[in-house]
Structure formats: C-alpha cells, structure tokens
Amino acid sequence: MNSMQKPPRDERELEQYIGRLLRAQPLRQAPAGLEARLLQQLTLDVARPWWLQGFSRWPWLARILFVLISAGLVLLTYFTTDRLGSLSQGLQQTAPANAVRTGAQAFSNFGQALQTLGEMITRNIPTAWLYGGAGVALLLYAALFGLGAVAFRTLIDTTPEHARY
Length: 165
Description:
Blueprint: H1 11-23, H2 34-47, H3 60-91, H4 95-123, H5 127-158
C-alpha cells in the first residue's frame, strides 16, 4: 500500500497526509487576461490621490490634522448643543412659546373629548355586533381576494401562450 493511500490515524498524521496531497497537486495556470487586468488595477490604485485611499495610507501630517479637526468639531458640536439648550429654555418663557403650549393643550383636550365620545359609543354597542361586524369584514375581504384571483386567472387563460411572458 502506498503512503499516499494510507488512511491517517490521528490529527498529526491527517495534517501530514493532507499536506502531502496538496503538495502533489499540479500548479494551475491563471487565465490569460488576469495578469494584465491585475496590473492595470494596481496601477490605477497607485495613481489615486492619497485622500481617496485608506486612512492608514494618508501622510502623518494629514492624519494628525484630521484627528485634531475632528476633535475640534466634536467640541464645537457639544458647546453649540449646550448653547442651543439654554437658548431653548429662554425661548420657552416667551409669548410665542406660551401660545404654542396653549394650542397644544387645546389639541390634547380635543383628543381626550374624542376618546371619551368613542368610549361612550362603544360601551353601548353589544359585543356580538362587534364580532359580527369583524366577521363580515373578514368574509368581504376573502370574497374580494377570491374574485381578484378568479379575474386574474381568467385573464391569464385567455391570453395567448406566447404573450403570457
């Protein structure tokens, strides 16, 4: 029995067996145009400007400036947000803010009145009617779905075979 055909007994022998099998495989030739396309892509990648390449390929000065500018923008955003918060608190004490608050309160009161009216109406409707209405709605939906399926099937069956697709 050849050593290449000998079944492995443990992990180490299996590893050596697979290594021998892989080394015995012939080298494969790359497709004809692959090398030219690869060299063309590498040339294009090298010709790209540094700011279009990955951050790790940027010059050190550009990286440092980017980090400093980013940190400055974070601080500016923090201080601007803080200032806008205090400005918002000041604006809440003005007359237009009070008018908006009054309008929102009126809208909320209107919503509560509609909710109370809906509760009064639905409290007086028997539950059998509600379930019956839901059942009728479900039946109508099923009928609409069925009629649509029948109409679609009728149109497909009357269409010539070559025009279906």
